[in-house]
Amino acid sequence: MKLPDIDYQEEIKKCKSMDDVVGKNGLMQKLLKDVMQQLLEAEMDEHLGREKYERADNESEKNYRNGYSKKDVRSSYGEVPIDIPRDRKSEFEPRDIQSELEELYGIDISPSMISKITDKVMDAAAEWRNRMLDPVYPIVYMDAIHFNVRDEHRIVSKATYICMGVDMNGYKYIWGIWIGEAEGAKFWLSVCNDLNNRGVRDILIACMDGLRGLPDAIRAVFPKVCIQNCIIHQIRNSIKYVSYKNRKEFMKDLKLVYKADTEEIALAQLDELKKKWDNLYDSVIDSWYENWDKLSTYFSYTKEIRKMIYTTNTLEGFNRQLRKFTKIRTVFPTDDSLRKSLYLATDQVMKKWTSPLPNWEVTLLKFEIMFKERINEALAV
User: Where is this region: Disordered (predicted)?
Assistant: First the structure.
């Protein structure tokens, strides 16, 4: 099988859009296919103990190539079709191709080549980071995930903070991704100011997972925002301190709190929970009281809105997609390499968001009734 003779410098020049680089049949797919194919051919040569067309010394022990089998390898740039060499004796067992991807950068693709290819899309990334946003959003989700990055000969875990907004038409978008900043009110204030500078005048409800400094920062820029901490995260943080033998009964009692029809009933059930379990799990129950102002927001809304805001699972689903796209890189060499990877992955994920959230018409009607003045005020600016 003759490998393609591709002039990648010329191919780079032909790229006019991000799809030309990372889309289906794009440059990255061609590049990965070419290099992985060369790895397999070299591995077969090593297995046979000779070059491709070299004959064996002992004819009785000879083993030859015997065509190819097809395999699609998943990568951050989609599925890459590979031809796996076969030998007549069926003894050839190539190493896991997926694990070889990490080695590609040191074999036939230099870091400078990778940089040139990915830099082609960074103008689009900068435009995305600074694009104008709508004046008002019904819901925004904020969360953080961590990635390993090399920093002065050390591998450190850096937080990646993500904002996802749902617009008035029910479509979700990633507003931005911020990496490696020190979490706190000052950091989150800069994020909120950035959103405000890009056109956001009001956020009706902000859903988050107890991110330090965020509540004060977001209220400083969007003073009317309603904050809802993720109930699911609060439950997880609570149950890990409860003895296994008591979990089933404790969860049954706790469910009466967060599943209550009204805040008044929920608080009454929380008081009952404290009476029953306070001698064993006082700190767990106290955390519900301490965070109640941010945990109880959803009781003020209809079931349609409650379902959307009591958890940050919508954003966590996006985070899982990021993990899928970046899982081949256990450690990123620089912050910039992480930014590039996250932008490219984000772009690919958002292409699939072509429909509004389920039953959005009913949900929007509730928002327009409950927040009519705020919506009109934001749109009038």
Answer: 46-70
Whole-angstrom distance, CA of residue 37 vs CA of residue 93:
15
A 10 A CB-CB count for 178 gives 19
Q: Is the confidence at residue 77, as pLDDT, over 80? A: no
Question: Residues 181-197: pLDDT tens digits?
Answer: 667 788 899 999 999 99
Helices (H) and strands (E) in the chain, counts: 17, 7
Continuous segment of H or E residues that includes residue 118: helix 111-119
CB 163 within 8 A of CB 312: no
Q: Report how many domains make up the chain.
A: 2
Which pTM was predicted? 0.70
Burial of 59 (0-12, 13-18, 19+ CB in 10 A): exposed
CATH at residue 202: 3.30.420.10
* Statement to judge: residues 215 and 332 lie in one domain: yes
Among the listed residues 199, 207, 227, the one whose alpha carbon sits nearest the alpha carbon of residue 309: 207
Q: pLDDT tens across 308-351, in order? A: 999 998 999 999 988 887 777 778 888 888 888 888 889 889 98
What's the pLDDT at 278? 93
Domain span including residue 32: 8-108
